Amino acid sequence: MLFRTIPLKPITLIICNILFLSASFAQKRNMIDPGSVWPDDQGNHIQAHGGGIIKQGNTWYWYGEERRRGLDTNYRFVSCYSSKDLMNWKFRGDALKLSKPDTALFDRGWVLERPKVYYNKKTRKYVMYMHLDGRVKGTNSGGYGYARVGVAVSDKATGPFTYVRSFRPLEKESRDIGQFIDDDGSAYLIFESRPTKGFYIAKLSDDYLDVKEETSFIQAPLEGGAIVHYKGLYYVVGSALTGWRPNPNKYAIATSLSGPWSDFKDIAPVETNTYNSQSTMLIKVEGKKSTTVIFLGDQWKPSTQWDSRYLWAPTQIGDGKLWVPEPKPWRLNIKTGEWVYINDTDSKIPQH
Ligand code: GAL
After folding, report:
1. How do the pLDDT tens digits run along the chain, 352 residues long?
2. Distance 332 CA to ligand 1 centre (A)
3. Which CB contacts under 8 angstroms, 24+ apart, belong to 137-140?
4. Contact, 108 vs 100, CB < 8 A?
5. How far, in Å, from the CA of 224 to the mean position of ligand 1?
6. Contacting residues for 158 by C-beta, under 8 A, at least 6 apart
7. Ligand 1 atom 2: the closest Cα is on which residue?
8. β-bridge pairing 198-204 and 211-218
9. Is CB count within 10 Å lower at the N or C end of the chain?
10. Which atom of ligand 1 is nearest to 50's Cα?
11. The whole model's pTM is what?
């Protein structure tokens, strides 16, 4: 009896603790595995396609197209996730649930794509931009004839966001959008425009609810625009206009956001079609020891959109060159800004 009661209790507790700890460790991710299923804190594949990421304090927020199965088809949804290390993401719910914003749009087939969120320090509001599109009633405009941005606001990063209005920035057709926040805090919207074909980089108004002025127009048949400011140079990345199909993405550089911009060059081996992905964003992680610029691409699966993947890869960047090496599982140290390939002992690939 004695033998049973005394030692069993603490041993049971220890076993329970070990089981509990290993379960919580098992959930913690210590790598980014480009192109794989990426589980959130609840074990579901992250649904933040065509996303946008901002940093508030030491928390990163990732917004994107919510495409999980079983969604109410009367609405379009924007998801929100948060992370402290860019590897482990907690699902914070759908930050925006939008019903058809304009009766001019056909009921079926209208889309909300590539949402981006900015935080406005003056108004203390979070302002979301999104690409709204669809067929316009009474026209032959096709599925992407509306070509507008929508704006929504919230007091909190996680929402709920309230829809405000839609418009054509600078009175232009606007399709894929990207966001860029410069080191001085200035906020810009990047939007792809036709029939001219090219990127507009446009500064947002003081309250971010409007587009104030054209900063630059880069004439090139590209979309999926992303910008990073790195060591005195601006790098813009874009993909060719091939819809969901991947293509060789390209980059150009300038010493000022207003240009002049260089010619475009490849960011990856042409035959890989950017490792089967399409540009969405470039994130700069500035740590105590190093700065890492991450290329964020979407690997679209048009007929199973919920299963579309993310290709996040550390870039080789500097002196006017930008290259995305073959993606492999990697780990980021958010504090130092350094990264390593999981299976490599050598810490870093050499810079250009
Ligand atoms: C891509 C665009 C995506 C989506 C898709 C639809 O070119 O980047 O966001 O709009 O076309 O075909």
Report:
1. 344 444 545 555 555 455 544 444 446 999 999 999 999 999 999 999 999 999 999 999 999 999 999 999 999 999 999 999 999 999 999 999 999 999 999 988 899 999 999 999 999 999 999 999 999 999 988 899 999 999 999 999 999 999 999 999 999 999 999 999 999 999 999 999 999 999 999 999 999 999 999 999 999 999 999 999 999 999 999 999 999 999 999 999 999 999 999 999 999 999 999 999 999 999 999 999 999 999 999 999 999 999 999 999 999 999 999 999 999 999 999 999 999 999 865 444 444 3
2. 29
3. 137/103, 137/104, 137/105, 137/106
4. no
5. 8
6. 61, 80, 82, 92, 93, 95
7. 243
8. antiparallel
9. N
10. 9
11. 0.91
Taking the centre of ligand 1 as the mean of its atom positions, its distance from the CA of residue 260, in whole angstroms, is: 27
Pocket probe mutation, ligand 1, options 177, 223, 301, 303, max atoms within 8 Å of Cβ: 223
Q: Identify the residues whose C-beta falls under 6 Å from ligand 1.
A: 50, 113-114, 176, 223-224, 243-244, 278
Residue of minimum CA distance from atom 6 in ligand 1: 243
Nearest CA to ligand 1 atom 8: 224
| Cβ-Cβ contacts under 8 Å for 307 (sequence gap 6 or more) | 37, 45, 301
Pairing of strands 162-167, 148-154: antiparallel
How far is residue 33's CA from residue 329's CA, in Å, rounded to a whole number? 4
| Cβ neighbourhood burial of 311 (10 Å; 0-12, 13-18, 19+) | buried
| Cα–Cα distance, 62 to 157 (Å, whole number) | 10
**111 CA closest ligand 1 atom index:** 10
